[in-house]
Design brief:
The protein has twelve helices and no strands. It is mainly α and about 210 residues long. The protein has two domains: about 1-105, Alpha Horseshoe (Serine Threonine Protein Phosphatase 5, Tetratricopeptide repeat), CATH 1.25.40; about 115-210, Ankyrin repeat-containing domain (Serine Threonine Protein Phosphatase 5, Tetratricopeptide repeat, Alpha Horseshoe). The protein is elongated. The model is unreliable at about 10-20 (pLDDT under 50).
């Protein structure tokens, strides 16, 4: 009799797991089609707001990548782990900065998203893609202009590499170290020259870059 009870309990657990797995797939679909009502219902039914894909992508990250303001707001209201990282070490804020989604950046920061952390940062992402408005918001919220990635790369180097003149000027204005070098010994000036970014190189030299 006890064995039968244990078997029934096991079956019930399996059914619960299958139900949640199906609900997760429903949640993904709801986010993609901007179905706020279904998202709210699924959260009430027990779908974990911090559920992640095999790549470590959270529901919040998916909403950011899909560009769905109502979905981002709905998920933030459920108090997710805003600083969770995917398999590439990216946070939802980094993804929003990369895409130039100013509204999402502000929403995430207001909910406690970290503007600074080890490794690549939101400011580096905005610098690489010349998202001036995002960079201004991040710096205004305390982003460390001279933060370095694991290999020593800075936001200034990212901007210099791509020839983003306005971004380079913005970062210099806020104290970017023009002579910092990566672990391989490259400075922002050397990066700019290697990429043929003459205008950026001239700006860096005027700012005191060592030649």
């Amino acid at each position: 009799m006890n064995n039968i009870k244990l078997s029934l309990a096991g079956i019930m657990v399996l059914f619960a797991v299958w139900a949640l797995a199906g609900a997760y797939e429903d949640m993904i679909h709801a986010i993609k089609i901007d179905d706020e009502k279904t998202v709210a219902e699924l959260l009430k039914r027990g779908v974990d707001v911090d559920s992640v894909s095999p790549e470590g992508e959270s529901l919040l990250m998916l909403a950011v990548k899909e560009g769905k303001p109502s979905m981002v707001k709905a998920l933030l209201a459920a108090r997710p782990k805003v600083n969770a990282r995917n398999a590439y070490g990216e946070t939802a804020l980094m993804l929003a900065a990369l895409r130039g989604q100013a509204e999402f950046v502000r929403l995430l920061l207001d909910r406690g998203a970290a503007v600074n952390h080890p490794g690549w940062t939101p400011l580096m992402y905005s610098a690489a893609n010349n998202r001036i408005d995002i960079a201004r918001v991040l710096i205004g919220r305390g982003a460390e202009v001279n933060a370095t990635a694991d290999n020593g790369t800075t936001a200034l180097m990212m901007a210099a590499r791509e020839g983003h003149v306005a971004m380079v000027l913005l970062l210099l204005e806020h104290g970017a170290d023009v002579n910092h070098k990566t672990q391989f010994g490259y400075s922002a000036l050397e990066v700019a020259r290697d990429r043929g970014m003459r205008e950026v190189a001239d700006i860096l030299i005027k700012a005191g870059a060592e030649q």
